[in-house]
Amino acid sequence: MKAGTRERYPTAMAIALAVFFIVASVRCGAASNQQTASVAALERMAHVEFGALSAAELRMLQVAPTRDIAWASTSTDPNAPINDPAKAATWGPERTIRSAMIEWLLSNPEAAKLVHPSGLAVKAARITGKLDLSYLTINTPLMLVLCAISDGIDLRYSHYQSLDVRASWTGAIVGDQSVSTGDVVLRYGRYADASFYRAEIGGNLEANGGNFIGDEPLSVVDATVKGDALFHEDFETSGVVDFRLARIGRSLSFNHAHFTGKNDNGLNAERATIGGTLYWVDIEGTPKTQLDLEDARAMALWDDRKSWPAAGNLSLDGFVYSEFSGGPGDSESRLEWLRLQPLVMQKQPQPYRQLADVLRAAGRPEGAINVEVAHQDALRRLENLGFTDRLWRAALDVTIGYGYRPLRALWWILLFVALGGVLFRSGYRARLITPTEAEAYDVFVKTGEPPPHYPPFNSFVYSLENFLPVVDLHQGTYWRPNPRHTPMRPGKSDAQTATFDRLLAPMLRWYLWLHILAGWTITPLLFAGLAGLLRND
Q1: Which residues pair with 49 in a beta bridge?
Q2: Nearest to 268 by CA among 237, 242, 230
Q3: Domain identity same for 105 and 222
Q4: Helices assigned H by DSSP within 51-169
Q5: Are 141 and 262 in the same domain?
Q6: How far apart are CA 276 and CA 225, in angstroms?
Q7: Contact, 479 vs 450, CB < 8 A?
């Protein structure tokens, strides 16, 4: 770089910086002048519209064109006792804002265009009269924090950006069929009935730490919440949070929430659609706390055992979910969960099938089978069945687990074949099972052995052939129990053996009939179970 160039470079930089600061100062001054003019215009219009203004109203008008917050209190400490809205009755007129002025500031064309795009923010004020924003289109956010709005807020059919009424005490909030492009925040305050029937909330619905004291504390029936619906951090109510038919884009979350009072309370989410997870965690309730998920849909469920409602207060018929994101995931625990439903609902098939599908998808096929068998047990226990139906279901249970455990029948087959083998062998030795041919019979009675040409007796094969249908192993044709034959057990003459043989003689024929009938029942059930023909899927 040449020497002249080096000398001119610092000079040019200094000139550029000086110009930048001059322009910036001019712009700041212009902005300040513009804000001052806006404030003056707002005060002038407000005086014409409302007459004398309180200190809090003047402060609100002064910060409306800026990003600042209008504190009505002398302290900006949110934890200061003088900012507790529970003590709003002691707040003087200097902390009072008429609701009509807020309505005017947000809706009057001339006034609204002077409000900063970041919105209107008021803290620690007592707002008198119902804040009626119904049917209005509000183009900026509204924040009313630590405020007392005893007559409530009316948002019916309005279009607004967002509403933040955190840490405030309010009367009823009615937002039926309203549209919000952002969040609705009702956190850490005390609220009467809040209704958003068929409303559309473009962001989150937040009620963390809120205390809802109305008879119908929070109704979001048939509404759309595109974000999360959150009820955390000591949320409390003595009523039912109503999400029937609601559509929630992400999660519906109750975590560390309290349901109190003597009347019905809890969550009603019948036919709600939840795009994310339904959380029901760390819930403190009463014997009347209900969780109604009938015909609801969620991507996942996360709950814990201590949060489950009392028996009879859980409704799950039609509830569809893909997995358990947290909480108990084993079949034994979840069957206890299903048994919390009212008795009339415990026999409905859908909750069992849904649970079985989820367990199977989670790699727990045995758990899924436990659930399917439990459903059949519930039907047998709760349905008004006749004696024959109950007997048939009991037989299906003990033999093949209602078709879900068909291999259980193999144990019965082995048991009958083994028992039959022992009895038939004892009967053969006592000569109570004899040849069916006359000549062979005479030889057997005399010697205890059949003629050499005659098929020998095998107790196991005899038992197996008589148990299995349509199986001929050439034993049953040649040998039969003979109850009229006198027991003859060579070398065994004691009284106990003689008594046993006399009892065995009539018993063998009866047992053979039972043996054959059991075979004709259990064997077809085995194959029907393996083919899935008896499952109630």
Answers
A1: none
A2: 242
A3: no
A4: 55-63, 99-107, 109-112
A5: no
A6: 12
A7: no
* Domain shared by 163 and 186, yes or no: no
**Would you mind telling me the total number of residues written for the chain in this entry?**
537
Co-location of 154 and 258 in the same domain: no
- Structural domain of residue 261, as residue ranges? 176-300
390 located within any domain: no
Residue among 472, 475, 482 at smallest CA distance from 442? 482
Rounded to whole angstroms, what are the CA distances from 432 to 403, 445, 491?
39, 10, 16
**Is it the case that residue 395 has pLDDT exceeding 80?**
no
What are the backbone angles phi and psi of residue 185, rounded to the nearest 5°? Answer: -115, 115
163: three-class secondary structure by DSSP: strand
Bridge partners, residue 312, by sequence: none
Query: What phi, psi does 215 have (nearest 5°)?
Result: -65, -35
Tell me the C-alpha to C-alpha distance, in Å, between residue 352 and each of 311, 376, 465.
17, 10, 40
What is the C-alpha to C-alpha distance for residues 283 and 322, in angstroms, rounded to an integer? 22
Q: Which of 300, 328, 346 is the last residue of a domain?
A: 300
Residues 369, 375, 376: CA angle, nearest 5 degrees: 95
Q: What is the spatial distance between Cα 308 and Cα 285, in angstroms, rounded to a whole number? A: 9
Q: How many CA atoms lie within 13 A of 180 on its CB side?
A: 29
What predicted TM-score, i.e. pTM, was given to this entire model? 0.80
* Secondary structure (3-state) at 18: helix
Residue 531 backbone dihedrals phi, psi, to 5 degrees: -80, -5
Which of 148, 171, 194 is the C-terminal boundary of a domain?
A: 171
Check whether residue 145 and residue 204 sit in a common domain.
Answer: no
- What pLDDT score was predicted for residue 501? 57
pLDDT digits (tens, 9 = 90+) for 58-76: 999 999 999 899 999 999 9
What is the rounded distance in angstroms from the CA atom of residue 188 to the CA atom of residue 236? 10
The backbone region for 241, taken as left when phi is positive above 0, alpha when psi lies in -120 to 50, beta otherwise, is beta
Q: Are 110 and 184 within one domain?
A: no
Helix, strand or coil, per DSSP, at residue 463: helix
The residue type at 390: R
Q: Give just the sign of the alpha carbon dihedral 203, 208, 214, 215.
A: positive
Question: Does any domain span residue 392?
Answer: no
Quick one: what percent of the chain has pLDDT higher than 70?
A: 89
Instruction: Tell me the C-alpha to C-alpha distance, in Å, between residue 325 and each of 276, 277, 458.
Output: 11, 8, 59
Q: Is the dihedral of CA 25, 29, 30, 31 positive or negative?
A: positive
- Look at residue 328 and tell me if it is in a domain: no
114 assigned to some structural domain: yes
Place of tokens 């999400």: 243
Q: Residue 205 in contact with residue 226, Cβ under 8 Å?
A: no
* pLDDT tens by residue, 134-169: 999 999 999 999 999 999 999 999 999 999 999 999
Please state whether 448 falls in left (phi above 0), alpha (psi between -120 and 50) or beta. left
Same domain, 214 and 284: yes
Number of domains forming the structure of the chain: 3
Closest residue by Cα to residue 332 from 366, 298, 292: 366
Q: What string of DSSP letters covers 206-242?
A: E-TT-EE-SSS-EE-TT-EESS-EEE-SSEEESSEEE
**Amino acid at residue number 488:** M
Whether 162 and 189 map to the same domain: the answer is: no
